[in-house]
Amino acid sequence: MKTVILLLASVTIVAPQARYPGGGIGNFPGAGGGAIQFPGSSTGGTRPIRPARPGAGGSVRPGGGGGILPGGTGIFGGNDQGSGGTGGQDLSSPPPLSTAACPPFLTPQVHYNLGGRQYHYSWCVDGGQRYNWQEANNYCRRLGNGWQAISIETAQEDQFVVNILDSHDLPYIWTSGNRLQGRGWVWGNGQLVYYTNWAKTGFVPNRPQPDNHFNNEQCLSVLNRFYPNDGITWHDIECHHVKPTICERAAQSYSG
Prior knowledge:
This protein is mostly beta strands. About 10% of the residues lie in helices and about 15% in strands.
């Protein structure tokens, strides 16, 4: 009996390769561009960008900076690089601070004397740097010998500050004023804020200051006609915004 052996050849069936769009470069899908879309996956889409908070990227917030959240040094972060412009302008970088009106020192570190106090203008010494609130206060302390950021405790001292911002064409300064301890507004020397010159308007038109509009406005700044129908007045500001400052101390002798 003849045995018939049937040899069945193995046949390898090769399925055609699927092409997955990727928006890539050359023949490498996804190498630069859209994501690879596999069968059965959703096309998804771009996650919507949340609008930046006012003050981020140089918007209308006074001294606003480049990032939405504070960064940098100090407990408030800071080194924001966005707009510090006036009148709600949208600028990519803050305008330089003018030093044209800067006087020479009367005595070491002292630009002006008034009512038994001595004053130092940070922008006249550091090339027009800006600091967040903590950094501004640290700048003054580093001068030594009792220096701290200014406490505006009288109408005379307030008028002095108004004159300085006006004559130096400054958009704003930091003071030592704050309410970080939860016991109302105080100065850096621990004294409660009694004399005030709060603005009658602000980011929200015709809303008197302080209004804590962003629920984190804990530091006191003097703004120079920043908002329409405003003068050189006090505003509560988020502490990470960046500004120059005026430092002060009790009058001392030259050796002090």
